[in-house]
Design goal:
4 strands; 8 helices; mainly alpha; globular; Four Helix Bundle (Hemerythrin (Met), subunit A); two-stranded antiparallel sheet; 237 residues
């Protein structure tokens, strides 16, 4: 009886439908399943989640070391590749092995993502590649969109993982290319003024994230308003 009562009191969790429509999603999905089926049983999803976190912390450290070790940012591409392996494969391994922990996985995975994003952009702010204010604006815009995604996941039942055919994997690739390119083209000229390439990318990224947030918030608010119309006012007696 106590066990049954505890189970009845346990909060229910409805796993949201994952929506990933990025360019590389079809081939990425097949590759992840292929790797998950061949991964040693001694390696579980928690190990992969931990690897994802450590790799982003390492990427942020590589950026932060740029002023004293100019070659360090070149390792960012390696860190991001390792992050893709851990972050993308942990959930796939749990599903392939039929060991899902939906509440635990959802919570831990996104806590790790938040810490990793803060570390990555924090490192960029200290790297000299990006102005700290722009790095902070980009991080704030990222968290703003994350909040909208999590709210929509709870209220609509859809967890959106990509926008405009761009998802986490594509972003990792773009960031890796940009980091390697900055060695030869650290700045560009706009209206006769030299500006950092990463500053330009950061402003564009922050504006894109805020714009995506506003669009998604408008669409989802309208959808929820139609799904839950305002009840009629009670008639006076």
């Amino acid at each position: 009886m106590p066990a049954m009562a505890a189970a009845a009191a346990e909060p229910t969790f409805r796993e949201s439908r994952r929506e990933l429509t990025s360019i590389l999603a079809p081939i990425e999905r097949r590759c992840l399943i292929w790797m998950a089926e061949r991964l040693p049983l001694a390696i579980n999803s928690d190990h992969l989640t931990g690897l994802a976190l450590v790799s982003l912390l390492a990427a942020g450290a590589c950026y932060a070391l740029a002023p004293v070790w100019p070659a360090a940012p070149a390792l960012v591409a390696v860190c991001l590749a390792v992050n893709w392996f851990g972050d993308s494969l942990d959930g796939t391994v749990a599903r392939v092995r039929r060991q899902p922990r939906p509440r635990y996985g959802f919570y831990v995975d996104h806590v790790v993502d938040a810490i990793g994003a803060a570390a990555l952009l924090g490192g960029l702010a200290f790297s000299g590649f990006m102005t700290p204010v722009i790095a902070l604006a980009l991080l704030s815009a990222y968290f703003l969109l994350c909040v909208e995604v999590f709210l929509a996941s709870q209220t609509i039942g859809t967890f959106t993982m990509s926008y405009f055919r761009i998802g986490p994997t594509e972003l990792r690739i773009l960031l890796s290319i940009g980091t390697l390119a900055v060695y030869t083209h650290p700045s560009t000229v706009i209206a006769g003024h030299a500006v950092r390439v990463f500053d330009v990318g950061g402003v564009i990224g922050a504006c894109g994230l805020v714009g995506t947030f506003l669009r998604a918030a408008f669409v989802h608010t309208r959808l929820l308003s139609r799904a839950e119309p305002r009840p009629a006012a009670p008639q006076a007696a």
